[in-house]
UniProtKB/TrEMBL annotation:
Residues covered by the FAD/NAD(P)-binding domain: 1-331
Sorted UniProt keywords: FAD, Flavoprotein, NAD, Oxidoreductase
Listed name of the protein: NADH dehydrogenase
Family matches, as SUPFAM superfamilies: FAD/NAD(P)-binding domain
Listed GO MF terms: NADH dehydrogenase activity
Family assignment from sequence similarity: Belongs to the NADH dehydrogenase family.
Pfam family, one: Pyr_redox_2
Stored InterPro entries: FAD/NAD-bd_sf, FAD/NAD-binding_dom, NDH-2
Organism encoding this protein: Streptomyces longispororuber
Amino acid sequence: MRILVVGGGYVGMYTALRLQRKLKPELRRGEAEIVVISPDPYMTYQPFLPEAAAGSISPRHVVVPLRRVLDHCRIVVGEVTAIDHAERTASFTTLATDEQGSGPLDLAYDELVLAPGSVSRTLPIPGLADHGIGFKTVEEAIGLRNHVIEQMDIASSTRDPAVRDAALTFVFVGGGYAGVEALGELEDMARYAARYYHNIKPGDMKWILVEASGRILPEVGEEMGKYTVRELRRRNIDVRLETRLDTCEDRVAVLSDGARFPTRTVVWTAGVKPSPLLAATDLPLTERGRLRCTPSLTVDGAPHAWAAGDAAAVPDVTAEQPGAECAPNAQHAVRQAKVLGDNIAASLRDKPLQEYRHKYVGSVASLGLHKGVAHVYGRKLKGYPAWFMHRVYHLSRVPTVNRKSRVLAEWTLSGLFKREIVSLGSLEHPRAEFELAAGGGRPKES
């Protein structure tokens, strides 16, 4: 019995972890095999990306190595390109197939767990593909940190006021969790770093948040969303609601309200969409491109196929209105994975399945060091209490005792010592120095 898990994110890792515990006798006897195919050999705990970008947490502690956690599973670092569930086969590529120049490989399976997650939802905005920066992976988070500090270095070393102004202008598009938390943490970090520049003051920097709707952070409620807007504006952050980015060509951000900002930094966090892999399957999809699922986390009308998380449209059986679906967030994904693992094990043993039911308890968001908002179990918190709750909640949710201990140790040390404000942008092009020395020409970006 081969169980194929596509994706190594929240759902993929937690489901495989649950399965290797539930199916321990079958795995030991060789009666079952769990194969996890993931583009990366690690799971990224995305709520910690803003703190990693701000330097509060080391990047390696934001990720969880799959091979260490899933020691009874077969881990394949690759990308699934197509799935033929009627034939129970999946086509995938690996780094080796790319090197060999061979085509995709085929893998047969008995049970399928489809959890490829989501990708950034972009729009055909002129200049966005050339100049935009995402904020969904740990590489993007660290790259953005290096970029912000590099812009401060540029502004500090130039006498051209136009170059300086563009370098110190930072535009964030999207008022959800990713955009608000990334902006809050990075502005806090840059404000602290400015004290070490002789000619840059916090007031010299322009931070702009662009949101197409009339509110930000809808998950924490309208009242806390309005508080967040007031808090950000109190920090001289320009929050523009009901505004869109029209173009960012030639490094000039033009907004729908007519404002123009010469800038070298446009961070795009305006939502996500289901993985393109779903369109390359023969499984039923909803109008929004997500897998049509049942409350038991099976794919509707496709026996032996399971799904959860961002890629799955799971009915919310706790909602009052009919037809409601679970929100595609981490809170649901982690809990769905537990039920998903139990249901797969139950189906293999001919036992009844359970429905996924979890009432959304609330949300917490960080707005920088010692600043936050929260709406949990009907209670509204702001400032330090909300920030503290944010840290406690996510520390309890990050996988493995190893990661919990390391993150807690880093938080403790960061409270005792000063922040690190070093840019390690050269890590993104490690061969540049050698290429320059060996060839004598301009180093290539690689």
